[in-house]
Amino acid sequence: METVNIKINGMAVAAPKGSTILEAARYAGIDIPTLCYLKDINAIGACRICVVEVKGARSLVASCVYPINEGMEVWTNSPKVLNSRKRTLQLIISNHDRKCLSCVRSGNCELQKLCKDLHVDDEAYYDGEKTHYAIDDSAAHMYRDNNKCILCRRCSAVCENVQGIGVIGPNERGFKTNISSAFYMGLGETSCVSCGQCIAVCPTGALSEKDCTDKVLEAINDPSKHVIVQTAPAVRAGLGEAFGYPIGTNVEGKMVAALRRIGFDKVFDTDFAADLTIMEEATEFLDRVQNGGVLPLITSCSPGWIKYCEHYFPDMTENLSSCKSPQQMFGATAKTYYAEKMGIDPKDIVMVSVMPCTAKKFEIGRDNQNAAGVPDVDISITTRELARLIERVGLNFSLLPDEEFDAPLGMSTGAAVIFGATGGVMEAALRTAVWKLTGETSDSPVEFTEVRGVAGIKEATYNVAGMDVKVAVASGLKNAKELLEKVKSGEAEYHFIEIMGCPGGCVNGGGQPQVPASVRNFTDIRALRAKALYDADAAMPVRKSHENAAVKELYDTYLGAPGSHKAHEILHTTYVKRKIHEI
Amino acid sequence: MASNKIPFAGSKEQEAALMQIISEHKDDPGCLMPILQKAQDIYGYLPIEVQTMIADELHIPLEKVYGVVTFYAQFSLYPKGRYKVSVCLGTACYVKGSGDIFNKLQELLGIGSGECTPDGKFSLEACRCIGACGLAPVLTVNDEVYGRLTVDDVEGILQKYA
After folding, report:
1. Cβ(A54)–Cβ(A71) under 8 Å?
2. Are B63 and A583 an interchain contact pair (Cβ–Cβ within 8 Å)?
3. Which fold has domain A214-571?
4. How far is C-alpha A343 from the chain's CA centre?
5. Number of H helices, E strands in chain A
6. pLDDT for the residue B1
7. Which is deepest, A258, A402, A417, A543, by most CB within 10 Å?
8. Which is nearest to B157 in space by CA: B118, B108, B92?
9. pLDDT attached to residue A125
10. What is the pLDDT of residue A464?
11. Which of B48, B56, B67 sits opposite A170 (nearest CB)?
């Protein structure tokens, strides 16, 4: 690797050619503060917080986008630099709603940290003219509070550049500049898919999910309700971050213990329903292959992806698997099979889900998601909301013991836990589909490593029982679009495609704990969290969905066979065709 | 933003002209600005219907188009009324109180700067010096100039066009 030698604050530093000053400084153990810059998402050098002095340069330069060159001399903490950062920050917070005490981001707000670090006090000194905006609560999943927006544009960058949607962006100019949708439509009126990536990258409290933690506690405190909870695979790989654990720590056991202590009547695992999804989806896949159904079959676990497909590829909704997502399959099973088994009226069950996802809040309100005549899932909260709930009820997370999920809907396999990472659903489906195709007695393969990893688009071909099965995996909706356009044009042909709305899959979902830019810019959080899930899979005694004993019992005693009429009634759903613009 | 929307009345001919412009420019880098300028020439303004056509044809988000339209003062989201009311906010007129006259007009017409009444009759805008500083403060309605105004004169002027 070719390196470039520069001096930072008088110290010699060698950094790879092509590095920015920000990256080179990191090699010297210096964290230059940033606000608008986010690696691979937003590099516009606009906020001026990361400015540094460069010998010979006309003015201070934005280190996030300024490349290093041989012999360059840089100062990252001279009085000129620090004063400039401070003044910039003063101007930013002069038009910021500083209700920090109860702000959802208090304690992990990047703006708050900068103000503390640069000693910018909250004084009346900043009380000049302010802009005032109404809070946009039109979407099912989130609030947009422009009064706390600092116009860094990370949200609009991730929406347009990563997700290929672009429903929010800067409008007007100067003092009136604000992030909003075209013609000030509410987010709920646009083709927003509820992925929540904008929330995950927001440095402040301007963007947040609709918090349902009070509703959860209300249900738990209602003695007439049987309140049960399911947790998605990716939650266990992200929750620990909210309590100081390193990124990629699997905290499943403590999470279960916390949920039990919060007061849920049963603590179950969405992983059970992930195994169930595989049984239904693999059956659907083989049926489509053998009986000339619509191919490629595309997975339907990700509600952000589903809404994207409905808006942007409405002619491909027939390709979507009719399987409900694991969240919904779980709720449907709980309110039919489990309710019957326990002798509880489904109306008295409150099904809470903990998801790494904000689109799940939208999904619970979709049509045909009510197998027992009541909504399959009543309340969907994010990983972040669960962390808040744990803090509110006063649990010391790190001191909790490791506990296990309740039976029977807490039983799962390794195939289910990898659902949280891009390629995981495909791999889980292959484990079962290959077993089915090669004969149900065979010792079929477990690992399909070609579909693993954080690449945006992955392809593989597997020869199974004499047939070449072509599969593709995409995560992040811009990647999904690229892949689907190839399919539509005939440039590429597949039998089975897995798509997850968020880049890297659910582990990097819009409901996961926010990771500050100072970490994100130098760490691949997708890979670290995914590793926690693959490690969990490898350690599981049972790693194939069709070997899940609780799922087998569900079929034997209640549903019949995968793909049966009853399974369809309870576990499958429908889609709608939408437009990009509804005017 | 006006709460009442003036119904869009674009014709097939206008749409054909817009499509022609888009197909001429769509492969040029930075094509959005010239397309918007010509679209405004065709329609007189850039309502959601026109911006949506442009977004769809260029395969870019509607928000991107709207962001550019609202950034530049040269673009209007509203049509001009049959009577175009223009108040000079240049230095001389402003110190003579044209700001109050402008506010009174907004109040009487129920529209903001750059907007048009729902019946399509009046549009309102602020302008800079029209060279009649001796008559300050001044406003114009189409080509008619009214000078040495007080706030109390405004209602009478509008009634002339009722």
Report:
1. no
2. no
3. Rossmann fold (3.40.50)
4. 36
5. 21, 17
6. 42
7. A417
8. B108
9. 73
10. 87
11. B67
> What six digits make up the tokens of B17?
């002209």
- Strands, sheet with A457-464, edge to edge from the N-terminal-most edge strand: A297-298, A496-500, A467-475, A457-464
Residue with tokens 């360059």: A72
Cβ pair A162, A173 in contact under 8 A: no
> Among all residues of chain A, which has the CA nearest to that of B55?
A581
Percent with pLDDT over 90 in chain B = 86
| pLDDT attached to residue B4 | 52
* Strand, helix or coil for residue B139: strand
Q: How does strand A73-75 pair with strand A51-54?
A: antiparallel
Question: Best mutation site among A183, A191, A192, A313 for testing chain B: the one with the most B CBs within 10 Å?
Answer: A183
Given the structure tokens 């805008």, which residue do they identify?
Answer: B125
What number is the average pLDDT over the span B2-27?
88
Taking an 8 Å cut-off on Cβ atoms, the answer to whether B66 and A183 are in contact is yes
How many angstroms separate the Cα of A312 from the Cα of each of A191, A299, A499, A581, B67?
A: 9, 16, 14, 10, 21
Show me where the domains of chain A are located: 3-92, 95-209, 214-571
Question: What does the pLDDT look like over A460-510, one tens digit per residue?
Answer: 999 988 889 999 999 999 999 999 999 999 999 999 999 999 999 999 999
Residue type at A49?
Answer: I
**Domain A95-209 grouped into CATH 3.30.70.20:** yes
Give the CA distances from residue A56 to residues A22, A70, A75, A79, A564, in Å, rounded to whole numbers and listed in that order.
18, 13, 12, 17, 74
Cα–Cα distance between A126 and A128 in angstroms, integer? 6
Which ranges in A221-264 belong to alpha helices (H)? 235-238, 252-262
Nearest CA among A56, A55, A119 for reference residue A93: A119
Using an 8 Å CB-CB cutoff, list chain B residues near A167.
61, 63
Tell the residue number behind the tokens 């940290």, with chain if given. Answer: A113
- Give me the pLDDT at residue B3, please: 45
| CB count in 10 Å sphere of residue B15 | 15
CA dihedral for A345, A348, A349, A351, sign (positive or negative):
positive
The C-alpha angle A166, A169, A170, rounded to 5 degrees, equals 160
Provide the CATH number for the domain formed by B83-159 in this structure. 3.40.30.10
Q: What is residue A571's predicted lDDT score, i.e. its pLDDT?
A: 98
* Nearest CA-CA partner of A244 in A31, A32, A513: A513
Q: Extract the tokens encoding B62.
A: 């509607």
Nearest chain B residue to A175 by CA: give it.
B71
Give me the interface pTM, i.e. the ipTM. Answer: 0.92
Kindly state the tokens that stand for B36: 């918007």
Q: pLDDT (tens digit, 9 = 90+) per residue, B56-104? A: 999 999 999 999 999 998 899 999 899 999 999 999 999 999 999 999 9
Chain A contact probe: residue of B3, B63, B115 with most A CBs at under 10 A = B63
Q: How far apart are CA A81 and CA B11, in angstroms?
A: 57
The answer to whether residue B2 scores a pLDDT higher than 70 is: no
**Residue A525 neighbours by CB distance under 10 Å:** 22
Instruction: Supply the DSSP symbol for B79.
Output: P
Best residue of B45, B70, B71 to probe chain A, by most A CBs closer than 10 Å: B70
Cα(A214)–Cα(B77) distance, rounded to whole angstroms?
A: 42
Contact A542, A275 (CB under 8 A): no
Residue position matching structure tokens 């109390």: B152
Is some CB atom of chain B closer than 8 A to the CB atom of A182? yes
Q: Which residues of chain A fall short of a pLDDT of 70?
A: 440
Of residues A160, A182, A580, nearest to B66 (C-beta): A182
Tell me the pLDDT tens digit for each residue of A301-345: 999 999 999 999 999 999 999 999 999 999 999 999 999 999 999
CATH architecture of A3-92: Roll (3.10)
